[in-house]
Amino acid sequence: MSERLLVVGGDAAGMSAAAQARRLRTAEDLEIVVLEQGEDVSFSACGIPYWVGGQVADRSDLIARTPAEFAAAGITVRTGTRAEAIDLDAGVVVTAAGERLGYDRLVVATGGRPTRPPIPGLDADGVFGVHRLDDGAAVRAAVAAGARRGLVLGGGYIGLEMAEALQRRGLEVTVVLADPLPMQLLDADMGRRVCDGMVAMGMAVHTDQAVREVLVDAAGRACGVRTDVGSYEADLVVLGLGMGPEVRLAADAGLAIGPTGAVDVDRSQRCRDHPEVFAAGDCAQTFHRVTGEVAHVALGTHANKQGRVAGSVIGGRPARFAGVLGTAVTKVGQLEIGRTGLCTTQAEEAGFAFRTDTIEATTRAGYYPGAEDVAVKLVTEAGSGQLLGAQVVGGPGSAKRIDVLATAIWAGLTAEELAGSDLSYAPPFSPTYDPVVVAARAVSRTEQG
Amino acid sequence: MSERLLVVGGDAAGMSAAAQARRLRTAEDLEIVVLEQGEDVSFSACGIPYWVGGQVADRSDLIARTPAEFAAAGITVRTGTRAEAIDLDAGVVVTAAGERLGYDRLVVATGGRPTRPPIPGLDADGVFGVHRLDDGAAVRAAVAAGARRGLVLGGGYIGLEMAEALQRRGLEVTVVLADPLPMQLLDADMGRRVCDGMVAMGMAVHTDQAVREVLVDAAGRACGVRTDVGSYEADLVVLGLGMGPEVRLAADAGLAIGPTGAVDVDRSQRCRDHPEVFAAGDCAQTFHRVTGEVAHVALGTHANKQGRVAGSVIGGRPARFAGVLGTAVTKVGQLEIGRTGLCTTQAEEAGFAFRTDTIEATTRAGYYPGAEDVAVKLVTEAGSGQLLGAQVVGGPGSAKRIDVLATAIWAGLTAEELAGSDLSYAPPFSPTYDPVVVAARAVSRTEQG
User: Fold this and answer.
1) Helix A435-447 vs helix A402-410: angle between axes, to the nearest 10 degrees?
2) For A111-138, what is each residue's pLDDT tens digit?
3) Of A44, A408, A410, which is closest to B365 when you measure between CB atoms?
4) Is A271 tagged catalytic?
5) How much of chain A, in percent, has pLDDT values that exceed 70?
6) CB-nearest partner of A422 from B330, B410, B432
7) Which of residues 333-372 of B touch A (CB under 8 A)?
8) Of A107, A123, A114, which Cα lies nearest the Cα of A249?
9) Cβ contact (<8 Å) for B404 and A399?
């Protein structure tokens, strides 16, 4: 007898779950229906800044697979269909239109909810999010309509990427943030490099300022922001204030919410009290590989993997999500930024005795054209030398080096073990000692006294 | 009472040994003298193709530190001084000029010896090695003098890099190799990609041809080569036939030579029967991290590290070399190549039951400008899924991904563990799943059946 899998939310986590379950079970055995409140599924929110910036030409480029393509693969996608409630006892999802859809298995993949501070003016015309493709289209339209001054609220990944995008489109760019420096998941010395880089690009960066109000002109359009320090004019305002888990549906239904505010799941993405219900992606809580503690990290990579874990289990194949390090990369202009594991603040919070080491090197042999400065900072456990976290800031060719460090942390290597490792060298690709090894060596040398 | 450290050979291994010993022991405690037969120390042989190709402007760019700089650091460098013999019983090195220099500790760092086949014409004018800076100067001079057709013998790293260099300088390039494909430490399917790339660049690539003779014109200059298949005209001939260990001095002295033909040392770079003598770099035997077997891999990275190990031990700090994976990168034109660990042939020789998986992906999000095709091939142990080796061939941004795989192999990860790891993602840097993860996933998915 056929079962039905309902998936609420049609982006990375939801569609990965659906696709993986479909790989493992036939359409006769398992019907799969995805409910998506928007018009797009399987789209790249991470690509929106590059669509705004013009590196990506078409909205359709950001859509990995269309509902029709999923249909051809035996997955029914119902766009424009908002799930309003879950009746866990009955095993039913109720849509906004009042339709009651029964399920045998349910995947909650409701994603993230952009942070919106409770300030006046936030709903005015000319204030834009960066969450859905329609947001990107709206910013593009505002730029095309002649906006000259762009103001970005927030200094995280999205903030930096949107600042770059607006500057590429010729706007004067102002970035306003409440934190002392951009990129709060970097240590201050590394965040300072990012801030200096943004200023060197010609951006106005105003730090340590809490935004109080979006200023609105007589026509009802945003014309700037006021902070506790000053006011800044703008023709458009972009919100890049981070993302929390979107859990209203799950919480209302009575699914357990963890201390991070996200849906509590086990390592198979299962809700503990409702083994027929799974949650995955930005709405779900996960755990940190280094600390072992619960964590909430809203990133597409995890969403994809967690969705696939849920889909595997539903498909009958045991699977577990292996945790996160919080690895991330971004860039602003030519400046590349990577981070993984614990920064200083996180290492302190987790109770580690640790040390930090920062080195400066070049991305290629110093004599090779395009060699750029790169700084690598390592956080290691005192005594054992175990790698806990790493940060990289530098010119083109810097950021992806964080993957070597993420792999080393993932594997539990010490700095000394990494220092001895056999990384590749040729003048167009690195100095004789890769910057990653130079950093690891700095730790192990000092540890030896 | 002061001791004397003699170092024979002033490039990567020798100067690393000298520098590390100097860091750990004062000039009063340890005199350090380096004998170098050439005029340069601490130079980048790996940079020669880029000096020939014009990316590097000056010979001096390839010299990391001069004898005067070493002298200022308390290391005496005697260039133009050839060590002719070692008297192990007396603890004396005899120079070509007949001088006898006593030592308490000795580091043999005589480097590599370029392979020269026993064929007629190899010593003619217009035939060039790629070993010392003078070789680079000679090729540059030949190009400046109007050479139009360059012929490279050999399809390894040096061959490819010199082929690129000559083409950059406007020469018609022919590459002749005895092997069926370039890059013998790649599997045939990956080597085929390299070969196709070279042909697409406009190079003539003649494979499976043993060279029989360098053709010489009436003026005594090389004018082409003859193989067992045909003859190819050229105005200059470059030898890129690989490198063996230069062990004449060590072997004549009676130091043990291992089965690889290189000087046998323990993991502290010590000659087993002569604990006061160390060997490091291209002249020394080492061991492979995956197989545990002895190996000889002539690469500057190992030379630096082994020299530093020897210098540490001499300096009184215990140290061990951690082995090699044979990680390497190179490029020819826009095509990047990386490899680490065991290729298929090596895995067979080592007696592993193994499988291979090859995937194709892109270096960036498919929609992001500059996304290039990349192929990743993994060699994994059957059953356990342990990573044994990896190969990467693709466009710009491909090669350095080998470092993630090298780190994973170094740490003993399985493909499944790597597939679960937290690598970075943003559209300018990778697809949502990095190609490395896509490859690891292909293994673990199939292993699960």
Assistant:
1) 50
2) 999 999 999 999 999 999 999 999 999 9
3) A44
4) no
5) 99
6) B410
7) 338, 340, 365, 367-369
8) A107
9) no
A94: how many CB neighbours lie within 10 A of its CB? Answer: 15
Residue burial A102-123, b: 16+ Cβ < 10 Å; e: rest:
ebebbbbbbbbbbeeeeeebbe
* CA-closest candidate to residue B4, choices B33, B45, B37, B24: B33
The answer on pLDDT for A258 being more than 50 is yes
Please tell me the distance from the alpha carbon of residue B44 to that of residue B38, in angstroms, as a whole number: 14
Q: At what angle do helices A402-410 and B402-410 cross, to 10 degrees?
A: 20
B340-383 pLDDT tens trace: 999 999 999 999 999 999 999 999 999 999 999 999 999 999 99
Decide if pLDDT at A1 tops 70.
no
Q: Which CATH superfamily is domain B3-113+244-314 in?
A: FAD/NAD(P)-binding domain (3.50.50.60)
Nearest to A429 among B326, B400, B418 (CB): B400
Q: Given a cut of 60, is residue B71 above it in pLDDT?
A: yes
CA distance A160 to chain B (A): 13
- For residue B400 the two structure tokens come to 């350095």
Residue A446 has pLDDT above 80, yes or no: no
The continuous run of DSSP H or E covering B380 comes out as strand B373-381
Over residues A180-195, the pLDDT tens digits come to 999 999 999 999 999 9
Q: Which residue has the tokens 């947001």?
A: A135
CA atoms within 13 A on the CB side of A184: 14
pLDDT of residue A447: 58
As beta bridge partners, residue B112 has: B245
Average pLDDT on A222-236 reads 97
B413-433: pLDDT as tens digits:
999 999 999 999 999 999 999
What's at B312, amino acid-wise? Answer: S
pLDDT, position A111: 97
How far is the alpha carbon of B30 from chain A, nearest alpha carbon, in Å?
20
What is the per-residue pLDDT for B445? Answer: 74
**Dist CA B1 CA A405 (whole Å):** 45
Nearest of B396, B403, B405, B357 to residue B380 by alpha carbon: B357
Pair of tokens at residue B352: 């592993």
SS (H, E, C) A100-143: EEECCEEEECCCEEECCCCCCCCCCECEECCCCHHHHHHHHHHH
Q: Is residue B108 within 8 Å of residue B9, measured between CB atoms?
A: yes
CATH superfamily for A127-241 is FAD/NAD(P)-binding domain (3.50.50.60)
Nearest alpha carbon to residue A357 among A337, A336, A333, A385: A385
What would the DSSP string read from start to end of B7-45?
EE--SHHHHHHHHHHHHHS-TTTEEEEEE-SSS--SB-G
Q: What ipTM was assigned to the predicted interfaces of this complex? A: 0.96
What class does CATH assign to A328-444? alpha beta
Q: Residue B168's CB: how many other CB atoms inside 10 A?
A: 16
pLDDT tens digits along B255-291: 999 999 999 999 999 999 999 999 999 999 999 999 9
Flag whether residue B55 sits within 8 Å of chain A, measured between CB atoms: yes
Would the CA dihedral through B121, B125, B126, B128 be positive or negative? positive
Contacts of A55 in chain B (CB under 8 A): 368-369
Q: What confidence tier does B448 reach under pLDDT thresholds 50, 70, 90? A: low
Going by pLDDT thresholds of 50, 70 and 90, the confidence category of residue A449 is very low
pLDDT of A398: 98
| Residue A353 C-alpha, separation from nearest chain B C-alpha, in angstroms | 24
Question: Same CATH topology for A3-113+244-314 and A328-444?
Answer: yes
Amino acid at B30: L
The domains of chain A are located at 3-113+244-314, 127-241, 328-444
